Amino acid sequence: MGSSLKVVGLGPGDSALLTPQAQKAITDADVIVGYTLYVDLVPEELKEGKELVSTGMMGEMARCEKAIEIALSGKSTVVVCSGDPGIYAMSGLIYELAEEHLDTLEIEVVAGIPALSAASALLGAPLMHDFAVISLSDLLTEWDIIEKRLKAAAEADFVIVLYNPKSKRRDWQIGKALEIVGTVRDAGTPVGLVKSAYRKEQEVKVFSLNSFDIEQVDMLSTIIIGNSTTRMIGQNIVTPRGYLKKYRK
User: Where's the Tetrapyrrole methylase domain (predicted)?
Assistant: First the structure.
């Protein structure tokens, strides 16, 4: 294969959390393609001498098609994504759009630290047991399906991680999601809100389910709702894995 396209996860945004593999992929590339905000997150020294191709919000199709076109022309290309490229990001779309070129185009996905891991670390240890991750964006998935998944996760007592909870055009979904979870979960259940994890604008806040302040949520927020065993230890949200229950009797 002569053409190379890598889909690279930048992690939360702090260059200290950019993996060595991701750094090498960007360093070796001729062209960096991505959403403008994510291209801006790439350390300046890694962008030196590179061709930069950036698009605005909602430009995912055009962005990926352009990246494939550039890669097929012979230039080593990377598509940069925040978090991990395989979690609500671009790697799946790249594979779908490039399906007919897979005999000549080599695609590699370079993992990054996802938002859920960053948020979990900042909140304590809320994901020590089974959890479900649900995006509240209904741009590509009908709300009826999202609501069904929320109900199932809540009733099964999963810790629930919410991605894409709110945007300028979508402001009601988070309230509805909390209402759904609240029908089967205790009002005092810990809920963590992390905004812009590991960036200079970072905010980390903890609420109970019945006191959660929806007005503080934005498009860069990740929300983690505890399960029936989740509790506060100091200022940290912790979901016990079960070690003490099993071994300390």
Answer: 7-210
CATH class of the domain comprising 115-238? alpha beta
> Based on the number of CB atoms within 10 Å of its own CB, is 237 exposed (0-12), middle (13-18) or buried (19 or more)?
buried
Adjacency order of strands within the sheet including 221-225: 131-135, 159-163, 221-225, 190-195, 203-208
Domain with CATH 3.40.1010.10 in the chain: 3-110
Percent of the chain with pLDDT over 70: 99
Q: How far apart are the first and last CA of the chain?
A: 59
Q: Tell me the DSSP string of 193-224.
A: EEESTTSTT-EEEEEEGGG--GGG--TTEEEE
Contact 129, 195 (CB under 8 A): no
Helices assigned H by DSSP within 102-227: 115-123, 143-155, 173-182
pLDDT at residue 2 in the model: 67
* Whether the model pTM is above 0.90: yes
Looking at the domain 3-110, which fold is it? Cobalt-precorrin-4 Transmethylase; domain 1 (3.40.1010)
Closest CA to 245 of 154, 122, 128, 124: 128
The predicted structure's pLDDT at residue 169: 86
> 């185009």: which residue's tokens?
105
What are the start and end residues of each CATH 3.30.950.10 domain in the chain? 115-238
Q: What SS3 class is residue 129? A: coil
Whether the pLDDT of residue 1 is over 60: the answer is: no
- Compute the C-alpha angle 193/194/198, nearest 5°: 170
Residue found by looking up tokens 């070690």 in the block: 243
Q: In 3-state terms, what secondary structure has residue 90? A: coil
Q: Which two tokens stand for residue 42?
A: 């790439």
